[in-house]
Design a protein that fits this description.
Elements (H helix, E strand, L loop, with lengths): L1 H20 L18 H5 L4 E4 L5 E6 L2 E2 L8 E2 L7 H50 L14
Antiparallel strand pairs: 1-2, 1-4, 2-3
Length: 148
């Protein structure tokens, strides 16, 4: 029951995370990133554009991993204008790794709890049977009739 609840909660969290990423997706294939030079907010609303701060504030083609056309663009932004793009990639990678570790850990904990409960019941029944086998036999009381 706990595992089903956890799976439902995990599904809801992952669905919300995917929905929150949809705001960065702009399906306009005919965008010219060069039209947005000097305007970070307008540039980063397009998922295929990256804004470079260190190269005279240029909006160029790129993705979440950085610009694809400019070699020297150290302070690039993708999808937002406040955090450096490298830190966005590192944060996303760490978040994904954390989710994977939590999933694996919860599966291990759920398995261990179920395994222990199951074998605890079996061991109780086996130990009582084992104690009966090892206990010395009960002496039967014999009633001796004596006649006087």
């Amino acid at each position: 029951m706990i595992l089903k609840l956890f799976n439902s909660l995990l599904f809801i969290i992952l669905s919300l995370a995917c929905l929150s990423l949809l705001k960065y997706v702009n399906c306009d294939d005919n965008v010219n990133c060069g039209d947005y030079n000097g305007d970070c907010n307008a540039c980063t609303t397009h998922s295929q554009c990256v804004y470079c701060l260190n190269s005279n504030t240029v909006c160029t083609y790129g993705n979440i991993f950085g610009p694809t056309e400019i070699d020297e663009c150290d302070g690039w932004r993708w999808g937002q204008c406040t955090i450096d793009g490298v830190w966005v990639v590192v944060s996303l990678s760490a978040g994904i790794a954390l989710v994977i570790i939590m999933i694996i850990l919860s599966i291990v904990i759920a398995y261990c709890c179920c395994y222990v409960k199951k074998h605890k019941k079996i061991s109780k029944s086996r130990s009582s049977d084992f104690e009966l086998l090892l206990s010395p036999p009960q002496k039967e009381t014999q009633w001796v009739s004596s006649s006087i």
